[in-house]
Amino acid sequence: MTDSDDRTRFAGWLAASMSNRGLSQAQLARAVGVADTQVSRWRRGQVVPTVQYLQRIADTFGVQRTTLDRLVGYPVAEAGSPPGGGASDPDVEAELQALQARLREAMQTRLPRAMWRAYVEACIALADGLSSSTRRAARESRLPIDDPDQGSSPDRPLGFRS
Hints:
The chain has 162 residues and is an all-alpha fold. It has two domains: 106 residues, Orthogonal Bundle (434 Repressor (Amino-terminal Domain)), CATH 1.10.260; 49 residues, no CATH class. Helix content is 62%, strand content 0%. It has seven helices and no strands. The longest helix is centred in the C-terminal third of the chain and has 26 residues. The radius of gyration is 18 Å and the shape is globular. The C terminus is likely disordered.
């Protein structure tokens, strides 16, 4: 992978994460401690943040710094396999971590703790229903689908990658 690919991957992740959180360029710049123009350069894929700023970005979005290190192509010492087993795509890992942090924040700020388990179960039921509907629609239209049970991946994945 080239430096340009790394910059593009990070830029896509950053833009999508900012959009997900409703963060403006100015808000992220203040949170990280850089000028707005620097955030703009990161979002356009002109450069990637230094290690110092990657840590601040990781803290802001609730993701592990090593995930962002992998995303931008920095070397990462592997102490073991990532959570969940096996090697993980840094794009997918960063997306999952950002969404987990967002879900955690929503649960903590919008739901009483007594409802957390029911909310998670409802989310799982919704995911099962959507997955089943997607498979059924794909069979009917003969389109390829992203089926985790089959280990396939879509040609155009949802989320951060383009």
